[in-house]
Amino acid sequence: MKTIYNIRTLSTLIAFTILFCTLLSSSTNAQTRFRVPQSNPPRALNPTNTDEVIQLFRTLKSTKLPDWLRSNLSATTHQNNNDSFARATWLSQLHIVQDEPTCDRLKEQAAPVLKLFGRYSTVRFFLYYDNYPNIQTIAGSYLGVSTGLLQLLKRDTTENAQLLGLVAHELARAIQQEGFITAWKNEDLQTLRAFELFYDAVATATLNYLHLPSQQYALILQRMVAYTTLNNTDRTRHPDLEQRLSLIHTLTLTQYPIVEISATLN
């Protein structure tokens, strides 16, 4: 009897083992069959391909912009350096305006964009005499605003949408800046114009994220270009105004109506 009991126990154990292996195999096959395929890694950003840039920002959710910026901005640490600033302004032959209250005001007005780009503690504003309306980056950490642009910004919105768009355009230069610098050195005008359109796209996406009308950015660009046209200023490194306005209109969120902007200084 004991031998028969042992045989029955062994048979039961063998049967249980076979059943367990069968179930395990079925489970593994099911997992393999219904496994979600891994998505391909995103392609490297090409700022000089305007069609790709438009597609990127049309599909990028506004709420994802901060993450996108963190993953694409240059990892270079920007610090204020008086020596590099003095040399850069001397080379540019800029005539500095000593007006710290206005510079402090500009920084506070631009705070939403500076914080979004992680640059609030590293960027300083300065003013310089020039009727030509312009904003430019000097020595990596200084944003220079000409007196001509300051006059145009007096007609900015209460939310400072025009200034914020221009600042976002400048800060976007930290994205793949090596390509822009190379194009500048080689006087590759076609690539430079494509980069400027890319910066316009980043500026538009920034205003969308801040729930501000990007058409105000289009407006200040048009006023700046109108002034330079009237004064025969060379702007060969910038794309045509029509291209810039078209891109901004394409990326503008639908809740902000597209308005017609006349090419005047009014």
What features would you describe in this structure?
There is one protein chain. With 266 residues, the protein is α+β, with helices and mostly antiparallel strands. It has 2 domains: 1-38; 50-251, no CATH class. The protein is 57% helix and 6% strand. It has helices spanning 2-33, 50-59, 65-72, 82-92, 100-109, 111-116, 147-152, 161-171, 177-185, 189-209, 215-230, 241-251, and strands at residues 96-97, 124-128, 135-138, 142-146. A 4-stranded mixed β-sheet has the order 1-2-4-3. β3 and β4 (142-146) form a beta hairpin. α11 packs antiparallel against α12. The termini are far apart. Residues 27-42 and 255-266 have low confidence and may be disordered.
Report the span from N to C terminus: 110 Å
Number of domains as seen in the coordinates = 2
Mean pLDDT: 82
- One letter per element, helices H and strands E, the order comes to HHHHEHHEEEHHHHHH
Helix content range of the residues, please?
Answer: 55-70%
Structure at a glance:
The protein has 266 residues and is of the alpha+beta class. The chain is 57% helix and 6% strand.
What keywords describe this structure?
57% helix, alpha+beta, 266 residues, 12 helices
Question: How are the SSEs ordered, and which strands pair?
Answer:
Blueprint: H1 2-33, H2 50-59, H3 65-72, H4 82-92, E1 96-97, H5 100-109, H6 111-116, E2 124-128, E3 135-138, E4 142-146, H7 147-152, H8 161-171, H9 177-185, H10 189-209, H11 215-230, H12 241-251
Parallel strand pairs: 2-4
Antiparallel strand pairs: 1-2, 3-4
Helix pairs in contact: 2-10, 8-10, 8-11, 10-12, 11-12
